[in-house]
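Duplicate of earlier report; Helix-turn-helix domain-containing protein input re-posted below.
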Amino acid sequence: MTDTPGRDPDVLTTAELATKLGLSPQTVRRMANAGQIPALKTGKDFRYSWEAVREVLRQPHHQPGGPADDTQDDRPAHAARKGAGYRAQNRARTGAHNPITDVD
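Output:
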C-alpha cells in the first residue's frame, strides 16, 4: 500500500482490505453490503477502518438459530467454518498475516 500525504493509514479501500484479509474484493463488498463488516459508502465503493473491521472479525460467529453462548457443540471442525469471511475472521483472531502482502 502506498502512502498518500494526508491520508489516514487506518482507512482502507476495498482492494486494500481484500488484500489484507486474503479475500477477493467482491467478497469484501458482499460482506459490507450484508453488514458483516463496518463500512462507509463512498460513491460506488466503500472505505473501511482496519481496526474496526479487525474488532468485528475477532468476535465469535454465531449461526442464525444457534446458541448465542460460547459452548462447544457436536459439529465437526469443518462445519463451523461455513460462512463468508471465515478466513478473514480466523486471521483477525490469531493475528496471522501474509508477509508478502501485509506491509506496515
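Residues 38 and 53 are 6 Å apart (CA to CA).

Merging into the original ticket.
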